[in-house]
Amino acid sequence: MKGVLLVNLGSPDSPTPKDVKPYLDEFLMDKYVIDVPYLLRALLVRGIILRKRPEESAHAYAKIWWEEGSPLIVLSERMHKKVQPLTNVPVELAMRYGSMTIEKGLQKLHDQGVTEVLLFPLYPQYAMASTLTILVLAEEIRKAKFPHMKFTDVPAFYNKPDYIKNVADSIKTHLRDFDYDQLVFSYHGIPERHIRKTDVTKSHCKIDGSCCNTPSPAHDFCYRHQCYETTRLVVEQLGIPKDKYCLTFQSRLAGDKWLEPYTDIEINNMPAKGIKKIAVVTPAFVTDCLETLEEIAMRAKEDFEENGGKEFLTIPCLNDDDEWCETVGNWINDWASK
What we know:
Layout: E1 2-10, H1 17-28, H2 38-64, H3 71-83, E2 91-97, H4 102-111, E3 116-121, H5 128-145, E4 150-153, H6 161-174, E5 182-188, H7 192-197, H8 223-238, E6 245-250, H9 263-269, E7 277-281, H10 290-306, E8 311-314, H11 322-336
Parallel strand pairs: 1-2, 1-3, 3-4, 5-6, 5-7, 7-8
Helix pairs in contact: 1-2, 3-11, 6-8
């Protein structure tokens, strides 16, 4: 019997330092997120970051928290509820970090008699800190707890026509009554070394301005290429001229070289260049979360206006949009029918 496990990032159970600290510990101690030797990672995370970050992050989470709970969890659950009726196979929802674990999700499928699982990381672009860590953990759990299960995983869907149409349609809808100067495509940042580590050719990804445009097997796992390709396909479908959009990367940590250009710096410099009305879309996420609701819709907007910007529009993620849920249901049905 076949079944599906949708997997998103996760969230602390509450916007309090008590719950945020173990969540951040699990997240930042992941060897695919901070990819340094264990002792150095423990020193960095537990000796430095977790001394102050839980209070700061709890404050940020509190600003976006809904009555029903974490927006990411609530929106993921709404999407799950819409997708399930669109297919005849069981669909469950799990998170990579936090209390809604992958093991619990697999157990629910197992209890329904599922032996073949479609692992569905809810990330359009492939990255070791998102997609890979889900697949590795799921396989570890399968071997330990569900050895008779068989896994298939959904590849990065950054360039799938129906996904591109969903993003383009969403942007078009939200820009209908907004006369913008610039549309900013803001993707979650990652360290440049992650790009090189996931380069299957071990030589192609030089991040030199041309490698992402030169065909290569490396592109199947290159986050940077996939971000640029998502943007190219969306603006092509919408007919947006080159001078009306840009691509940036947000959410960097100090100490490493991360993908550039940086969202905050680019946005803050725009008013001085005469760019006073902007819209920001975040296609690295399919679900609104701390990085979109607080970092972009609140902080980036405030900074933009303080620097002379006049109008700032945040375009929501796909969330539980009917068109997007139908796309997911169709992909599941295509797999289930094989």
